[in-house]
Amino acid sequence: MADPRAPVYAPLLRGLHWLMFVILAVSAAGGVWTHYLPQDGALRGQVLLAHKSLGVVLFGLVILRVLFRLLLGTPPYRPALGKFNEKLAGAAHLLLYAVMFALPITGYVMSMAGQHEFALFGYYPVPNYIPANKNLAEAAQGGHMLLAYLLGALVVLHLLAALWHKMRGDNVYERMWPA
Fold first, then answer.
1. Residues 29-55: pLDDT tens digits?
2. Which domains are present in the chain?
3. Which of 23, 24, 27, 173 is the most core-located residue (most Cβ within 10 A)?
């Protein structure tokens, strides 16, 4: 049975975790949906604008989350998971953060190199620091797709690990669950 007194993540980190989960899910759904919409349709343009805008927001949030995680630290595992499991968890989290950081960058490069500049939520122009380059845009698109699939797989593994910890009752699940 989980110990309600076991250490948990700071409320700010728990809030960022769940906010990012919701935004990521909406953004991913939009990214997938665009593949089923007509190429020249207005709806596709709006969905892509929302997808790109949410990607910019997620990029900012992942930077904030890493900074706050470094500042606030992480709660210890109680009971201890053992060195192997702790190393595995650390590696999985590092990979998740790396992919969440790289995914918006590849999306940005793909958009800007492909001359698809946009304004954040249609209002605030996102600066373009990338010259037009069809080959770069195509390479970034391939990287973006690969990272999207990798993130999807990592999220599924993350959810399965959370359920495994919940079934074990070892307090790992409760560390990030909203209070």
1. 999 999 999 999 999 999 999 999 999
2. 11-176 (1.20.950.20)
3. 27
